[in-house]
Design goal:
- The complex is a heterodimer.
- By secondary structure, chain A is mostly beta strands.
- Chain A has no helices and eleven strands.
- Chain A is globular, with a radius of gyration of 14 Å.
- By secondary structure, chain B is mainly β.
- Helices cover 0% and strands 48% of the residues of chain B.
- In chain B, the strands form two sheets. Chain B has a six-stranded mixed sheet, with no helix packed on it. In chain B, strands 1-3-8-7 form a four-stranded antiparallel sheet, with no helix packed on it.
- Classes of the chains: A mainly beta, B mainly beta.
- Chains A and B meet through strand 5, strand 9 and strand 10 of A and strand 5 of B.
Chain lengths: 126, 107
C-alpha cells in the first residue's frame, strides 16, 4: 500500500525559506518510471504543480517558480524534500506531495498522480 | 503554459441526477487529460486518466470522454458520496496544469 505524508512548519514569515518533507512508503523512488511530485492549492484556487523528482534523480520545476524551488530526495529514508525560498503571503495554501507513475490505456502511457498525501497547510504571515 | 478552463465552476444537483462537467484546454492535448475528485479537507483522488480510462476501484457511474480541446466528465445517477470538487489536469506538456475545479453541491 502506497502512502505519503507531508511535514513541515505550518507558519512561516515573509522572506523566510520553507522546507517541507514528504515521507513515503510502499514504493521505491529508484524504480523506473516512479516520481514524487509537489503541488499546492491556495484557498479557493486551482491546484498548481510545483516540482517533480524522478527515479533517476531528474527534476522538473514550475517555470514560474523555478528560481525559488529545490527538490531533493533521500532514498535511504524514503523522503523527498521541497525547499521554497523568499516566502510571501501569496504562497499561503495547502501543499501536497503525490506518487507519480505511468498508467496504460491500451498501449498508450499516461502520466498520473495516483496517490496523494493528506496535505500540509502553510500560512505565510508576519 | 496550457490553461485549463472548467465549466461550470459549481452546480447543484440531487441524488440520482446525471451530472456533466466540461474541461477545455487552451490548446490541443490529444487525450492527455486526467480527472480528480477532492472532498473538503481531503487529498485529491484520481478518477480517470487518458481522458476516458477509469482508475481501478472507481465506480462505473463515472465516465470521461473527449480529445483535443473538449473533454467531459459525466456522473450518471449521482450518489451522496459524489458531492465534492472535481478537477481536470493536462499532462500533455509541462507544467501539468489543473482546471480551477467544479464544485458539485447538494440541491
Amino acid at each position: 500500500q502506497i502512502t505519503l505524508k507531508e511535514s513541515g512548519p505550518s507558519l512561516v514569515k515573509p522572506t523566510q525559506t520553507l522546507r517541507l518533507t514528504c515521507t513515503f512508503s510502499g514504493f521505491s523512488l529508484t524504480t523506473r518510471g516512479v516520481g514524487v511530485g509537489w503541488m499546492r492549492q491556495a484557498p479557493g484556487k486551482a491546484l498548481e504543480c510545483l516540482a517533480l523528482i524522478f527515479w533517476d534523480d531528474d527534476k522538473r520545476y514550475s517555470p514560474a517558480l523555478q528560481s525559488r524551488l529545490t527538490v531533493t530526495r533521500d532514498t535511504s529514508k524514503n523522503q523527498v524534500v521541497l525547499t521554497m525560498t523568499n516566502m510571501d503571503p501569496v504562497d499561503t495554501g495547502t501543499y501536497y506531495c503525490a506518487h507519480r507513475t505511468v498508467l496504460y490505456s491500451g498501449v498508450w502511457p499516461y502520466d498520473v498522480f495516483d496517490i496523494w498525501g493528506q496535505g500540509a497547510v502553510v500560512t505565510v504571515s508576519s | 503554459d496550457i490553461q485549463m478552463t472548467q465549466s461550470p465552476s459549481s452546480l447543484s444537483a440531487s441524488v440520482g441526477d446525471r451530472v456533466t462537467i466540461a474541461c477545455r484546454p487552451s490548446q490541443i492535448i490529444s487525450t492527455y487529460l486526467n480527472w480528480y475528485q477532492q472532498k473538503p479537507g481531503r487529498a485529491p483522488v484520481l478518477l480517470i486518466y487518458g481522458a476516458s480510462t477509469l482508475q481501478g476501484g472507481v465506480p462505473s457511474r463515472f465516465s470521461g470522454s473527449g480529445s483535443g480541446t473538449d473533454f467531459t466528465l459525466t456522473i450518471t445517477s449521482l450518489q451522496p458520496e459524489d458531492f465534492a470538487t472535481y478537477f481536470c489536469q493536462q499532462t500533455y506538456s509541462a507544467p501539468h496544469t489543473f482546471g480551477q475545479g467544479t464544485k458539485v453541491e447538494i440541491k
